[in-house]
Amino acid sequence: MIRLLVDSASDIPNTNSDNFLVVPLSIHLCNNDYIDGVTLNHDQFYEMLVSSSDFPKTSQPSPQAFVKAIEKVKAANDECICITLSSGVSGTYQSACLAKAIVDYDKIHVIDSLTGSYGVKLLVIEAQRMIKEGKTAEEIVEKLEDLKKRTTILLSVDTLEYLYKGGRLDKTSAIIGGIAKIKPIITVTREGKISVVTKAIGMNRVMNTIADLVEQIQPDINYPVYSIYTLGTKNVEKLENKLTENGHIIEERELLGPVVGSHVGPETFGVIFIAKNVDKIPI
Q1: Is residue 115 within 8 Å of residue 192, measured between CB atoms?
Q2: Cβ atoms within 10 A of the Cβ of 275, count?
Q3: Is this prediction's pTM over 0.85?
Q4: What are the pLDDT digits (tens) for 10-68?
Q5: In 3D, which of 156, 93, 148 has the Cα closest to residue 121?
Q6: How far apart are CA 124 and CA 90, in angstroms?
Q7: Confidence category of residue 168, pLDDT binned at 50, 70, 90
Q8: Comparing C-alpha atoms, which of 73, 71, 79 is closest to residue 135?
Q9: Do 119 and 82 contact (CB within 8 A), yes or no?
C-alpha cells in the first residue's frame, strides 16, 4: 500500500485513515501554544486573530513527529509519499528528511511542495488518483515533481505586516503594503518563497489584476481551480464572479487555515491552480 503523509499547513483535515497521515504544526497566539487542527480549528483561530493585537507565530513539526508517522509505515512494510510545506517558508521539509534518515527506511519519498495550503491539496488529489490507477510510488513522485512547478497562488493581502513580522518577507517589500490604498498581490515563487508580484490601487483594480494574471498564466483544465480566503467572503465572491465571467470554473471555495492565515492575516483572498505551462508563470 502507498500511504500519503502531509503536514497540517496543507489544510487537509486529518481523516484518521491508515493510508493518510497528517503531522501538525504549532501556533503561538495570545500567550498560548496550540496544535494546528488538534487544539485549534479555523474558527477559533480567526476569532482570536481579530480580537487580539498579538501577531501569531508558527512552529514546524519536530523530526520526531515525522518519525512517529514514518515508523507506522515501516512497520507495515508500506511505501509513503510525504508532501511538505515549502522549504522556502518553513523547516518542515528538513524535519521530514531528517526523520526519514533516522528511521532509515528507503520506501519513504519526501517531496518539497514549494507551495502550501491548497497547493498541496492539488498534489494530493493527483497522488490519490494515481494510487487508484495502480501507479508506482516512483511514477507518482515524478508526476508531482512536475505539477509542483506549475502550482500557482495569487493572493491579495490587506497588509504585508503579517508576512514581515513572521519573517517571510523583507522590510523593503513590506513597506509597499503600508502605503495607503495600495494593495499588494503576492505569490509563491518557483523557489517556494513569498514574493510581491504586483500592486494595485483600489479593490476593483485588484480584482482586474488578478483576473488578468489568471488569463496570462492560464489554468490547466485537467485540474481544479480553488478560490481561497482568510476572513470574510465579500471580496472572494467578487473575484469568483470575475473569473467565472472569463470562463474559469471555480471548483471550491476554501478557507485558509491557521498556519497560512498567521502569515497573511485577515481580509486575504485569491486563487490557486495548476498552470498549463510553467513558462507563463510570472515569477
Answers
A1: yes
A2: 20
A3: yes
A4: 988 776 666 889 999 999 988 899 999 889 888 899 999 888 878 888 999 999 999 99
A5: 148
A6: 19
A7: low
A8: 79
A9: no
Alpha-carbon distance 173 to 232, whole Å? 25
- What sign has the CA pseudo-torsion 45, 120, 229, 190? positive
**Rounded-to-10 torsion of CA 273, 276, 282, 283:** 70
In contact, 200 and 185? CB cutoff 8 Å: yes
Q: What does the alpha-carbon distance between residue 200 and residue 21 come to, in Å, rounded to a whole number?
A: 40
C-alpha cell belonging to residue 112: 518539497
Residue 282 CA neighbour count, 13 Å, CB half: 18
Cell of 152: 500557482
pLDDT at residue 281 tops 90: no
Q: How far is CA 238 from CA 73, 159, 231, 252, 266, in A?
A: 44, 19, 14, 14, 17
Which phi and psi angles does 160 have, rounded to 5°? -95, 5
Q: What percent of the chain has pLDDT over 70?
A: 89
Query: Could you tell me the three cell numbers for 55?
Result: 501577531
> Are 230 and 261 within 8 A, CB to CB?
yes
Q: CA dist 222 to 112, 147, 211, 251, Å?
A: 22, 11, 19, 12
What is the Cα–Cα distance from 28 to 161, expressed in whole angstroms? 17
Residue 226 φ/ψ, nearest 5 degrees: -110, 140
Q: Tens of pLDDT along 79-127?
A: 999 999 999 889 999 999 999 999 999 999 999 999 988 999 999 999 9
